[in-house]
Amino acid sequence: MVAIGGCPIVVGILGWFVLKEKPAKNWYAGTILALCGLAVLTLGTGSDVQFSMLGLALAVLGACSYAVFLVAIKPVLQHHDPSQIMTVIFLLGGLSLAPLLCAQPLGWLLTPRGALVAADLATLTTSLSFTLVLYGMKTTSAAVTSTLGLAEPIGAAVLGFMVLNEPCTQQTLLGLLCILAGMVFLIVSSPKPSCNGSQSVLN
């Protein structure tokens, strides 16, 4: 909840000061509604919630790291194609993580399920999803992009219900509806981009 929900807040602040994208009133309303839904969804899983200061600190660090990425990549999108940008980012990321392969067991990659999981993580979960995010950011502010990223818990919860047989309580449904309502409100109430695609949805 902290890692995913903290990102829009940090992006909103950084985008305002770094990118000069002042959040509109509809962004505040949509984001607060979605964050409330995320909190309800997380606390409504039925399991005991335990807090760890180290875990909390790492979650905040993760949220800030992704927020910095979104804000930093926004100006680059004006001059380069998103697919080219992600190719370079993933290449550098893969090279930096390559030394860790020497210390990790890789036998699971040789199994059918392991290979399928690796292929899904490489293509759909990472390459395609991040590339689509960058294409959306070409005509959308970083703050709105980060808030719309809260759709991730919706997909995770629905897959959990359908595939993993996780319990579906009234509280989790309420959380999902709040997140969805916040995003729909944000999309509907935002100004449409101009014909040349240069207008941001935040004024």
Folded structure, characterized:
It is a single chain. The radius of gyration is 18 Å and the shape is globular. It is built from eight helices and no strands. The chain is mainly α and 203 residues long. Residues 194-203 have low confidence and may be disordered. Keywords: Membrane, Transmembrane, Transmembrane helix. Belongs to the EamA transporter family. The chain crosses the membrane at residues 27-45, 51-73, 85-108, 114-135, 142-164, 170-188. Residues 54-187 form the EamA domain. This is EamA-like transporter family protein.
Q: How would you summarize the topology of this molecule?
A:
Blueprint: H1 2-18, H2 25-43, H3 53-76, H4 82-97, H5 112-137, H6 142-148, H7 151-162, H8 170-189
Quick gist of this model?
The protein is an all-alpha fold and 203 residues long. Helices cover 69% and strands 0% of the residues. The longest helix is centred in the middle third of the chain and has 26 residues, at 112-137.
- What order do the SSEs take from the amino end to the carboxyl end, as H and E? HHHHHHHH
Shape designation = globular
Helix content, binned percent = 55-70%
First and last CA, distance: 28 Å
Structural class by helix and strand composition: mainly alpha
Characterize the largest beta sheet: strand count, sense, and whether it forms a barrel.
none
- Number of beta strands: 0
Q: Give the count of helical stretches.
A: 8
**Kindly state the mean pLDDT as a whole number?**
82
Sheet-strand content, in percent, reads under 5%
Low-confidence segments:
194-203
Question: Using only CA atoms, what is the Rg?
Answer: 18 Å
